[in-house]
Amino acid sequence: MADTKELADRLNECAEKRDFAAAFGLVRENLADLAKALQPEGIKDALKKTTDDRLLLSFLDGAEFGKRPLGESMVMLEKLISFEPGALVLSKAWGLGKVVRLDYFYRRVTVDFKSRRGHQFSYVAAADMLVRAPEDHILVLRESDPAAFEAMLKDRPGEFVKAVLKSYGDMPIVRLEDVCVANGMVKAANWKAYWERARAELRKDRLVEIPAKRADPIRLKASAEDYGDIWLTAFGHETDPKLIFAGVNEYVAKGKLKTADEATRAKIEERLVFAVTAARKVDDALYARLACMAVSLGFANPPAQEMREYLWDRKRFVKAAAQLPAREVGAMIAFLGCDEASKARLYAAVPEFCFTAVAEIVERFGEESACRAALGAFMKQANAPATLTTLIVGKFERFKPWVDDKSLPPLIKLLNHAIALGEGRQSGETLKMQNLVRRLFADVKWLGKVFGWLDPDEQAFFFERFQASIAWDPSTHHTIVVRMTHIVPALGAHLVKTEKKREYARITSYRSFGLRKREYLKLINEDMPANIKRIEFAKSYGDLSENAEYQYAKDEQRALMQKQTTMQAELEEVKPGDFADATLDEVMPGVSVVVETPSGEKTYSVLGEWDNDIDLGILSSKTRLAQNMLGKKPGDEFELPGAEGAAVFAKIKEIRPLADEIREWMKLPDGVQI
């Protein structure tokens, strides 16, 4: 550890000599020690004393010392210093640009991009969104030596593709095409022929690995020389945290770190510190990967507890787990679960965790009583976590001891959670769990094991509970019920015969049909063409994979196309009508219904699929309330939807013809055509 008084004296010497470069290097090399003696504002003031340059002073003021961690401020300052006029920089959104002006008064960096001249960034935005372009980047070569770039592009396609891969990293062929076309290097119409020429050259290059599948990335293999002084020097200047992670990962995989000297280990540790700092508040999953790597390699920096606290803060670890490759989630769980208090925090987050993280928690800590108690408490609640439910019922042999020691409720209650999970519409991770559970119930072997673990009374209860679950797909539900009776024939006595509901023609009013068709025409004639224009405009921004505007426009295009397909099918299947054939024998589309509810009488008019008007009491025949009334006659009861707690029922009092007001509403509005 360096003596803080000695460091302070050396900083004062730099101030006397007005040597900012020496002071900056001193602070960067001894950041951890200085941080113990001085506040960030104090370090900024010490650096200010070494220069009268207004631009450097504005950089120091703009680097947000005191507002963000000291390491981040130093990274920001280092970036700003590198953005001198004429420097080439890279932006994920805009591609390659040239710094044309630095304004110390307004604290602005002005950059000329190919598609956007004079674009201004605040100091904070410039540090977050721009990086100094490496001299060997393919876009830099095109800018600095157009003749050499064109010669390589035309005559050496294999070498050109390698240069692109070195600049952007390993990537699949489709992504390679996007990069080359979006940056105007190769025309889309010429790409197929160009790639064939390049591939013929690359097949002869032992340092290039071309995958069999188009979805897998083309890889540049590292030669033995890459891990010598040349590689280490290049690695020492790397600023992309993803590439730093990949570089260290490969270096370790090759066994080089085991024989590395202290200077080399220090350089790798320093770059990892830089990468961890750069990944903060940008990519939580990458931050977690870097943190686990640093700890696994035995590096003291960044401090392990500091990285844990960052992941704990705002539950970043939950988001990171969902984004990490499945094989790396376990490393993060092990990294975070370093003591009993930390494990308790992991257990508490189980309802929010992805399935892989929950499985890793059980795998690593499942034999500990605290883990069993915490997870068992979730399963004893009315609404158990979907991920934990899926894991337990899917691998019940693993969890049977948990039931035996009372950590988990009996299997019959666990199965009840699983049935509930299979019901209704879900989304996100819960939808994935629902699909897994539904596949389990369709698995005859799994069902056989389940019934083998249950006693006869539990078998009957499980069977009856599943029969009563009407929210499953009807055909799947029927198939599973039949399979259950084949596994346990005695369950046939518990079969419930259900009356098949009358099916009504798919119909809606002329009004609703005309409005839906007008919406469809607007979609295909206005919305979709406008989206295509936005996609074409977004392509001009550069690298498509890092182009937010392009990604948003493509996501919108997929949504519009899905909507167009759905609406087209519905307009073909649903017919317009006036419900002239409706009778008053029972509740059906085209009648008004007077119902008696606990809060008084109400009148509803049940119409077609797309009809709805709350003020007039018009119900779509597809609403749950209408579905509960269809087929009922005066005097029949039905359940009111949306009630909490015990079921609440209403009674059909009277069925009436549609009022004139309702029939007037059903007519086609002026200016709307079918």
Plain-language structure description:
With 674 residues, the protein is of the alpha+beta class. Among the domains are: 4-68; 88-132; 138-221, Arc Repressor Mutant, subunit A (Orthogonal Bundle); 382-495; 507-574, Orthogonal Bundle (Helix Hairpins); 591-666, Chitinase A, domain 3, CATH 3.10.50. The chain contains 34 helices and 14 strands. The strands form four sheets. It has a five-stranded antiparallel beta sheet, with helices on one face. Strands 12-11-10-14-13 form a five-stranded mixed beta sheet. A two-stranded antiparallel ribbon has the order 6-7. A hairpin with a 2-residue loop joins strand 10 and strand 11. The longest helix has 30 residues, at 510-539. The protein is globular. The termini are far apart. 28% of the residues are buried. The mean pLDDT is 87.
Largest sheet: 5 strands, antiparallel
Choose one word for the global shape. Answer: globular
How much of the sequence lies in strands comes to 5-15%
Mean pLDDT: 87
Measured on Cα atoms, how large is the radius of gyration?
Answer: 33 Å
Quaternary structure state of the chains depicted:
single chain
Counted beta strands: 14
Please estimate the helix content: 55-70%
- Segments where pLDDT lies below 50 for 5+ residues? none
Question: What tags apply to this protein structure?
Answer:
globular; Arc Repressor Mutant, subunit A; alpha+beta; five-stranded mixed sheet; 674 residues; 9% strand; five-stranded antiparallel sheet
